[in-house]
């Protein structure tokens, strides 16, 4: 049998996509010898669409496109961007497995997402459907990070793997806050994304 294809999935709200997301995708690509990484913006439920001070779905997708355009092994996936917004990860992953029997999926998340993994819908089914690759975050101590991974392994019997990134002290929330405070976001996001945010005044005026 031919070797399975290996696809990374970098899911997120991407409001906006920042260098943390991009470094995670790139690190996963090299560390786990992936064939591609799919950036998969999450659909917002109807009540979360068109909020003041937040990007709408089209703007979030456009920012992802701009951010990944220069990387030949990154792709946009619209799997979770359906009309009524909301999708559950286990459903997406089970559907992708069914549609791509020759592919093994690597779901890329941050340590904050791992911490509340057991509150996600059907965590055992997510763990059965993919490898889960976790980047450290919020200065989590190495031994605590290892214990968190071990805890989820014991609970859900999944393949929980570590991603070798430095602690990337950046979040979409801090970027939105920096804009409100009149602080620069240069180099927090790709230059293409920064110019797009500036032009569309998504989060207010940029410095
Ligand atoms: P917000 O501040 O709005 O919550 P965010 O920066 O956390 O945004 P998301 O789009 O919510 O970005 O994140 C998508 C995924 O990427 C999540 O699994 C999150 O844990 C992970 N992630 C985002 N930024 C980082 C980072 N700097 N380090 C590690 N993981 C990250
Ligand atoms: Mg977040």
Q: Tell me the strand order in the biggest sheet.
A: 3-2-1-4-5-6
Bound molecules: adenosine-5'-triphosphate, magnesium ion
Domain count: the total is 1
Largest sheet: 6 strands, parallel
Q: Over the alpha carbons, how many angstroms does the gyration radius reach?
A: 17 Å
Tertiary shape: globular
Structural class: alpha/beta
How are helices and strands ordered from N to C? Answer: EHEHEHEHHEHEHH
Instruction: State the helix count.
Output: 8
Mean pLDDT: 95
Report how far apart the termini are.
55 Å
| DSSP strand count | 6
CATH architecture: 3-Layer(aba) Sandwich
Low-confidence stretches: none
Molecular structure report:
The chain has helices at residues 19-31, 57-68, 89-99, 111-115, 123-129, 142-156, 172-180, 191-200, and strands spanning 5-12, 36-41, 74-76, 103-110, 131-135, 159-163. Strand 5, helix 6 (142-156) and strand 6 (159-163) form a beta-alpha-beta unit. The chain has eight helices and six strands, in the order E-H-E-H-E-H-E-H-H-E-H-E-H-H. It is an alpha/beta fold. The protein has a single domain, classed as HUPs (Rossmann fold, 3-Layer(aba) Sandwich), CATH 3.40.50. Helix content is 40%, strand content 17%. Helix 2 packs antiparallel against helix 8 and helix 3 runs parallel beside helix 5. It is globular, with a radius of gyration of 17 Å. The model has no long low-confidence stretch (mean pLDDT 95). It binds adenosine-5'-triphosphate and magnesium ion. Adenosine-5'-triphosphate (ATP) binds at residues 12-15, 20-21, 24, 109-110, 112-113, 135, 137, 168, 170-173.
């Amino acid at each position: 049998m031919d070797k399975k294809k290996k696809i990374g999935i970098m899911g997120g709200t991407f409001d906006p996509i920042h260098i943390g997301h991009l470094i995670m995708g790139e690190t996963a690509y090299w560390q786990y010898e992936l064939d591609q990484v799919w950036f998969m913006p999450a659909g917002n439920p109807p009540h979360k669409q068109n909020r003041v001070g937040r990007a709408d779905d089209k703007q979030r997708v456009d920012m992802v496109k701009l951010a990944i355009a220069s990387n030949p092994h990154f792709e946009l996936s619209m799997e979770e961007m359906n009309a009524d917004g909301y999708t559950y990860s286990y459903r997406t992953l089970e559907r992708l497995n069914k549609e791509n029997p020759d592919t093994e999926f690597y779901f890329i998340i941050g340590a904050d997402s791992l911490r509340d993994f057991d509150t996600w819908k059907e965590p055992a089914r997510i763990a059965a459907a993919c490898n889960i690759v976790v980047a450290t975050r919020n200065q989590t101590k190495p031994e605590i990070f290892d214990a968190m991974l071990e805890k989820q392994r014991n609970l859900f019997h999944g393949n929980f793997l570590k991603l070798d990134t430095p602690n990337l002290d950046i979040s979409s929330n801090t970027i939105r806050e920096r804009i409100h405070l009149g602080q620069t976001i240069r180099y927090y996001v790709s230059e293409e994304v920064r110019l797009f945010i500036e032009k569309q005044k998504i989060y207010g005026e940029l410095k």
